[in-house]
Write a structure and sequence with these properties.
This protein is α+β, with helices and mostly antiparallel strands. Helix content is 33%, strand content 16%. The chain has helices at 3-13, 19-34, and strands spanning 45-47, 54-58, 71-75. It has a three-stranded antiparallel β-sheet. A hairpin with a 6-residue loop joins strand 1 and strand 2 (54-58). The longest helix has 16 residues, at 19-34. The model has no long low-confidence stretch (mean pLDDT 86).
């Protein structure tokens, strides 16, 4: 199966992203910043549970300032993907 066929298959079977999952990512950024594990240039990323070819990461912002609105979905080539 070629890459385009795999991508198309994921799009048709994808379920909505769980809001709690995004909230946990926000909390991880803020908590690790507060504990001094991350500095202003650090980040936390997680694999998209709906699609192993994507991951979630906050846009370029200090970890202690991350909100749910700052979370982006990227493919493995670091290109943004519409949710």
């Amino acid at each position: 199966m070629n890459a385009k066929a795999k991508t198309a298959r994921w799009r048709t079977t994808e379920r909505p992203l769980d809001r709690a999952f995004v909230d946990d990512l926000v909390a991880a950024n803020r908590t690790l910043a507060r504990l001094g594990v991350l500095d202003a240039f650090g980040h936390v990323s997680v694999r998209d549970p709906r699609n192993p070819h994507r991951y979630l990461i906050a846009r370029s912002i200090a970890p202690e300032s991350v909100t749910a609105a700052d979370i982006l979905i990227l493919d493995l080539d670091c290109q943004t993907v519409d949710p």
